[in-house]
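Retro notes, structure queue

What went well: the backlog is down to a handful. What didn't: a couple of records were mislabeled last round, so from now on we paste the full input next to the output in the thread. Example, using Polysaccharide deacetylase from Streptomyces ochraceiscleroticus:
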Amino acid sequence: MTFPWPDGYRAAASFTFDVDAESCVLAHDPSAASRMSLMSHQAYGPRVGVPRLLRVLRRQGVRATFFVPGFTADTYPDMVRAIVDDGHEVAHHGYLHEQTRGMDARTEARAIDRGLAALERLGIRPTGYRAPWWEMNWHTPRLLIERGFRYDSSLLDDDVPYRLREEQGKPGATLVEIPVHWGLDDWEQYAFYPGWTGSGVIESPRKACGMWREEAAAYHAEGGCYVLTSHPFLSGRPARSAALEGLIEAVRGMAGMWVTTLAEIAEHTERVVNEVRTVRRIDAPELSEDGERRLVG
Ligand SMILES: [Zn+2]
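Corresponding output:
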């Protein structure tokens, strides 16, 4: 794996924040709106987590990417303005953090357009997209390309960015993919709410950030693209954001590590990567008469 990072850099790292707030809960179950305590757990993100994380990023001199669902933008416009005022990137994350699994293209297009309209009301035209729950459908790249998105960050099939063409896509129409994975997401470490999410095990920030630091060191050694996904309602808590600041400081200190936004990584990828992958759906082979699955042809 040798990715052509800009001169002087050997690897890249991006700190990304998904500001789901209430949207992911309401998309999962609209009746959750009646649960005052659960809703307050989600509201902690925009109310307390984001301001604290913005202070961390300011102290570290790091620009980050914030994925903001349209519903969050409509509910907390001043918080989104504070993110923009600090020089961070705001990108698209659905409207109500929709469950896109199995969703048809027309319904998904409506959700994307609604999210775009909400961000546009705040003067933001995002270049990046992250599917709610990282749940892309095979038609999603086409919807993104049609709407002028430059990159997506929801797939899990590489350690470095690449350019993809949707299967039926016209030549020339491509999207940069900046891959993610569940080991670099704070949900699995910290999220717990009875009757909503999590197993009840809440990891210590030292353990979580130690694991993420180990990954960062390996991405750095291999010249990869390290993308950490955090949620302000989880990682914005005091000890967690303190540990995250230690991690950011350590990653910044890695020689030749380019710490930047996903938009900048995508722009660089468009410039230096000529190879374009066609991403194809792989289906199960047909069943033979004896019930064994065999490859056909
Ligand atoms: Zn999310």
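Agreed that this is the format going forward. Reviewer comment attached to the example: The mean pLDDT is 95.
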